[in-house]
Specification:
16 strands; about 20% strand; TIM Barrel
Length: about 300
Amino acid sequence: MEKVIVTAAITGSIHTPTMTPYLPITPKQIADEAVRAHEAGAAVAHIHVRNPETGQPSPDIELFREVVTEVKSRCNMVVCLTTGGGAGMTVEERGRVIPTFKPELASLNFGSTNFALFPVLEVIKEFKYPWERFYLEFSEDYIFPNTFKTLREFCQLFAENGTKPELEIYDSAMINNVAFMLQREKEHFKKPVYLQFVMGILGGIPPSANNLVFLYNTARELIGDFVWSVCAAGRHQLPMCTMALTMGGNVRVGLEDSLYSGKGTLAKSNAEQVEKIVTIARQLSIEPATPDEARQILGLKGLDKVNW
């Protein structure tokens, strides 16, 4: 592969403000980080938003509007909006961004999973905001719900608004879900699909070379042709993304997935992580795709057809 799509997951809904002073929180900070990531080589920005006063993950449509409008005014990168949201958000809250903004690309989590963050409480004892402790504790008894009914409804919603789903795959069972829905929802869910192998979340598949090969081979067997990418939590981010590059896959980095740029060193921006993976790619004679090249690879409708 001569070109690779680099996605920067800007802030996510996993990490909390106490964990790092560099986590972007306000719409302006999130938009600035996206643009900096673009300048470093990212073609796609994966966007969550947060309460600008407390940093708590939020489904507020107006916060999304501020971010996407600012990013579009400054660069032409692909904006991939989340429909995963944050723990405890309703399916309706999570999906609202699709009919509101009609984005080119949005995440679609393709199965339910135990999405556990609570072990962090063994390390961090004091928090900047009261919601942080509750949010982490809550995850011990939380199932991130993505039922077949939800998947069916989301597939229809995406199709109606011309939005390409980026299918978040946390374990091999979710690949089977994709194969099933390709047969069941042929009108609204079609090939070629775009798979994002998400590795290293407690409750999902562990990040290892064997597991990445297993996910890839399982998808090839059940789905056939597809476009794919990898993201991995914490210290596994760069090793698993590097392996994806050698296998012909695309990559995602960013402060949603890891707070570090190296062992024991907090990343001061998403751009630091983008620069690292772009450097590695170029050592392998692979260039980062431009936003328009990413649109062509993924078959996106174009920036002129979004609703912002």
